[in-house]
Prior knowledge:
Elements: H1 2-47, E1 54-55, E2 67-76, E3 82-86, E4 90-94, E5 99-107, E6 113-122, E7 130-135, E8 141-143, E9 148-157, E10 172-181
Parallel strand pairs: 1-7, 2-10
Antiparallel strand pairs: 2-4, 3-5, 5-9, 6-8, 6-10, 7-9
Amino acid sequence: xxxxxxxxxxxxxxxxxxxxxxxxxxxxxxxxxxxxxxxxxxxxxxxxxxxxxxxxxxxxxxxxxxxxxxxxxxxxxxxxxxxxxxxxxxxxxxxxxxxxxxxxxxxxxxxxxxxxxxxxxxxxxxxxxxxxxxxxxxxxxxxxxxxxxxxxxxxxxxxxxxxxxxxxxxxxxxxxxxxxxxxxxxxxxxxxxxxxxxxx
Length: 200
């Protein structure tokens, strides 16, 4: 009888250990899952993966006697009642030179609307070398009813791109922006339909 009680107690302890181990594993997996978007974003920003551009406080690069064409592309997601387009569709920029470009956005609805821009460059290999100093994409933008704003982006191309075989011979790079609603409450019945605009 005592042996049976001892065996039962041992089995109960083993079961508790298994349950606790499973709970700990679930907690770890849950933490990793929750952190995944942040970790992925940090990875993309650090490496330029997927055409993610870099952010710089200032430009200390040497200006090279070589020019690249920078094209600008703009898109508006469904549900955002904005018109969004670049002031110019392309510009020639010296590698290492600080450049300034403007995009224009108009809220076509009768209500204030918030938008958030996401961005990338193509070819993707330029992501490590395309540096933004200032950009409207760094934060949400709120446009009042029928308001039009000019939104700047200050950038430079890192001269190290000429040492990279995947970018050294490329004659141009495209900087693309897509604006999305920053608030999901902007229902289709509340806003005018958006017409995507593309530059390029």
